[in-house]
Amino acid sequence: MRHKAKSDKAEVILRARGLRKSYALGRERVEVLKGVNLSVRRGEFVSIMGASGSGKSTLLHILGLLDKPEAGEVHFEDREVFGLSGRGQDRLRSREIGFVFQFYHLLPELNVEENVMLPMMVDSSLWSWWARRGQTRRRAREVLGEVSLSRQVRQRPATLSGGERQRAAIARALVQKPKLLLADEPTGNLDSRAGKAILEVLLRLNGAGQTIVMVTHDRAVAELSQRRLVLQEGRLQGQ
Amino acid sequence: MYKSLLIWRYFLHKRVAFIAVVGVALLVMAVLVVLSVMSGLLEDARSRNHAWTGDVVLVRDSLVGFDHYEEFMARLAQAEIAQASTPVITTYGLVMGSPTQLFGVRLGEFCRVTDFGRQMHLQAGEPEPDFVLPEYGRDKGGLARLEADQRRRGIIIHVRRDDRKHFETLLESGRGEPQVFWSIDVTAFAVSHRGLLTGSELGETQRFWYVDDYMTRLLDLESAAMVDFDVLGALTWMDGQDGAPRRTNELRIKLREGLDLAEGRAAVASLWAQFVSEKEAAGQAKLLSDVRVESWKAFRRSQIAPVENEKSLMTVVFLLIAVVAVFIVFAIFYMIVTEKIKDLGIIKSVGGSAWGTSQIFLGYGALVGLIGVVLGTALGYAIVTHSNDLDGWLYAHFGWQLWPPDVYFGIEKIPDQVASGQAAVIAVVGVLASVVGAALPAWRAARLQVVEALRVE
Which of B247, B270, B304, B434 has CB atoms 3.0–4.6 Å from B65's, for a disulfide? Predict the structure, then answer.
């Protein structure tokens, strides 16, 4: 199942320079990122490994605009993302970056279809939503079909298995056709069979040109990606 | 779009929000009931006092009264400020041995200036009521006859509701039967234009006969009686028998149609000031300078103010209760936001804005408020419109009266109308209170960092 290497002539879609982040631990501050640099090309599948607590998820959250670095820059295509307005960053998260969490993070009061449509709902006014609701629903069902969840559209997350929930979360991350998919330990909470199914989905997506950055602590999972990086002592190794 | 969907789903799934709905409903219901009834009581108190007084009153706080009133009445008519005016003598005396406030009025004129005509019993609605008695009737000795001067000495007394039946038995008037002459002795005191007791040292006592009774539902008039203006004027020497000009204590005025009360009072005051200046120039203003010109509201302030004050107090009390309701809604929404922190993080992670996430809780607060207001208004409306039935039921089963008649004198029934304007204000305040209660949790939700929110277990 190992992925073939792609051409390194593709443009850089994501570039991070000098990222620093620390957390308070009692009275002390612990620096988890000490000047991280990263470049990701369009169509790449990059995995970032590291020990527990090494700052992998922190790095991914910063790349996905879910957290802010204390120093450094992130450029998405040609935009410095932390220089954008709040509204600009919201749009980026909604339309151009998809995020898959280890614990799925689906809204329990919405069914699978509604959870998948959430990025589109958030990105529309009431009137534009009303005008395009048919189109939006079709897109949601299309992407649910890609992750083999067509029969579960009306179910609530609580009634799904772990693997099904993670596939629904992947569908939500893909519904707006993002340019970049970030996955934080996507198989971390699943059994091996379900995990394997998820990895197959990711590989299939990457095969179709989706750029993916995945965080994992599992070497075997990381082996499936084109490029493997290790976050050690606050810096990325193996560029 | 997602906001409306989440607001509705949260409302259906979060049972604790129903507590907030009930809280808002009870608050709205209580405020609506109390304000409707108090507004009704206040309106009734104002109406009764206005009915007794007329629109504007010239009054001198002295048993001596003031003179030249007839000349001023003519000026009023010329100036086209008043539709009608009438003098009233007010004094104190004894009626059947009881201390009583006595009013001397020209009854027909008095009924044109005030609504007293509708408050009488036998002559209610008659175009020209009077104090005149028939020549023949019956008394204890059988058939009786009144002399000409006696026939003018009719007296109208206040009757309590529970005494009505006694009078009806006593009178047996109509149906061709001779009227029963019920004599009532009245003692009054003559006061000269210099303010001295004059005439007999023991006061003047005359015999009057019952001609009618009245019910104004005004506490201060419960012990009062009315006789003819000229008859009382003679009894109290206000009729100029001492050589001084004729006097009166009050001049009641009904303003012409279309004239605003404040404007009308000001016009009367201006005309009076001019009149007094002329009399001063002629050296005839000794009794005129401290005459006050008041609207009926100011004249009866002491009777209306307690009800106004009680309504204000009730409003303040319920505003405080509204603040408590805001805190209840705040506590519930704080709990809900704490539970939903992770949801907010998820929404923000897919592009939801800070303002968008706070709108979810503001909208949730508004929905809770709206449903609470609708329920509370419906309950409040039902209670107000059936308040008298409810009062009767409570009294019959528990001996409770919500508004006891001995405390709220003159109430014939509990007001049962909901003022739609007030209900609308209460509804808006109810929804706003709920939104304000949700505002701080909503603000907190907006400030959350995505990663912090997602870390919450």
Answer: B247
